[in-house]
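Q: I have 89 residues here and want to know how they pack in 3D. Can you give me a structure?
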Amino acid sequence: MQGTVFSMGVVEDVRQVLQDFLAPELREIRGVLSAIDKRLDSQDKRLDAIEEANRVRYEAIVQRLEQIQQPFAFDKRISDLEADKRRSA
Protein backbone atom coordinates (compact mmCIF):
# COMPACT_ATOMS: atom_id res chain seq x y z
CA MET A 1 0.00 0.00 0.00
CA GLN A 2 2.86 2.32 0.81
CA GLY A 3 4.27 1.81 -2.72
CA THR A 4 0.94 2.90 -4.22
CA VAL A 5 0.86 6.09 -2.14
CA PHE A 6 4.46 6.84 -3.10
CA SER A 7 3.70 6.22 -6.78
CA MET A 8 0.67 8.48 -6.71
CA GLY A 9 2.70 11.20 -5.03
CA VAL A 10 5.42 10.93 -7.68
CA VAL A 11 2.84 11.00 -10.47
CA GLU A 12 1.23 14.11 -8.98
CA ASP A 13 4.65 15.77 -8.58
CA VAL A 14 5.55 15.02 -12.20
CA ARG A 15 2.16 16.25 -13.36
CA GLN A 16 2.63 19.48 -11.38
CA VAL A 17 6.11 20.02 -12.86
CA LEU A 18 4.71 19.53 -16.34
CA GLN A 19 1.92 22.00 -15.70
CA ASP A 20 4.17 24.56 -14.03
CA PHE A 21 7.09 24.42 -16.44
CA LEU A 22 6.28 22.77 -19.73
CA ALA A 23 2.77 24.11 -20.32
CA PRO A 24 3.86 27.81 -20.29
CA GLU A 25 6.90 26.97 -22.43
CA LEU A 26 4.71 25.17 -24.94
CA ARG A 27 2.30 28.13 -25.06
CA GLU A 28 5.23 30.47 -25.68
CA ILE A 29 6.60 28.22 -28.43
CA ARG A 30 3.13 28.03 -29.97
CA GLY A 31 2.95 31.85 -29.95
CA VAL A 32 6.37 32.18 -31.58
CA LEU A 33 5.42 29.65 -34.26
CA SER A 34 2.18 31.48 -34.90
CA ALA A 35 4.08 34.76 -35.38
CA ILE A 36 6.52 33.05 -37.75
CA ASP A 37 3.61 31.56 -39.69
CA LYS A 38 2.02 35.01 -40.09
CA ARG A 39 5.32 36.47 -41.30
CA LEU A 40 5.73 33.65 -43.82
CA ASP A 41 2.20 34.22 -45.09
CA SER A 42 2.97 37.92 -45.48
CA GLN A 43 6.19 37.17 -47.37
CA ASP A 44 4.39 34.65 -49.58
CA LYS A 45 1.78 37.24 -50.54
CA ARG A 46 4.53 39.74 -51.26
CA LEU A 47 6.43 37.26 -53.42
CA ASP A 48 3.22 36.35 -55.27
CA ALA A 49 2.68 40.06 -56.03
CA ILE A 50 6.26 40.42 -57.28
CA GLU A 51 5.87 37.30 -59.41
CA GLU A 52 2.67 38.65 -60.96
CA ALA A 53 4.29 42.03 -61.67
CA ASN A 54 7.25 40.30 -63.34
CA ARG A 55 4.91 38.14 -65.42
CA VAL A 56 3.06 41.23 -66.65
CA ARG A 57 6.36 42.96 -67.47
CA TYR A 58 7.64 39.89 -69.31
CA GLU A 59 4.48 39.64 -71.40
CA ALA A 60 4.71 43.35 -72.25
CA ILE A 61 8.34 42.96 -73.33
CA VAL A 62 7.53 39.91 -75.48
CA GLN A 63 4.63 41.75 -77.07
CA ARG A 64 6.80 44.80 -77.78
CA LEU A 65 9.55 42.64 -79.29
CA GLU A 66 7.01 40.99 -81.55
CA GLN A 67 5.82 44.42 -82.67
CA ILE A 68 9.38 45.52 -83.38
CA GLN A 69 10.21 42.30 -85.23
CA GLN A 70 7.22 42.41 -87.59
CA PRO A 71 8.47 45.26 -89.80
CA PHE A 72 11.78 43.52 -90.33
CA ALA A 73 10.19 40.17 -91.27
CA PHE A 74 13.53 38.39 -91.00
CA ASP A 75 12.07 34.97 -91.73
CA LYS A 76 10.53 36.14 -94.99
CA ARG A 77 13.69 37.98 -96.03
CA ILE A 78 15.84 34.92 -95.34
CA SER A 79 13.41 32.72 -97.30
CA ASP A 80 13.47 35.19 -100.21
CA LEU A 81 17.28 35.30 -100.21
CA GLU A 82 17.48 31.50 -100.16
CA ALA A 83 14.98 31.29 -103.03
CA ASP A 84 16.96 33.85 -105.05
CA LYS A 85 20.16 31.93 -104.40
CA ARG A 86 18.57 28.66 -105.61
CA ARG A 87 17.24 30.34 -108.72
CA SER A 88 20.57 31.87 -109.61
CA ALA A 89 22.46 28.64 -109.05
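Q: Anything worth noting?
A: The radius of gyration is 36 Å. The first helix runs from residue 2 to 72.
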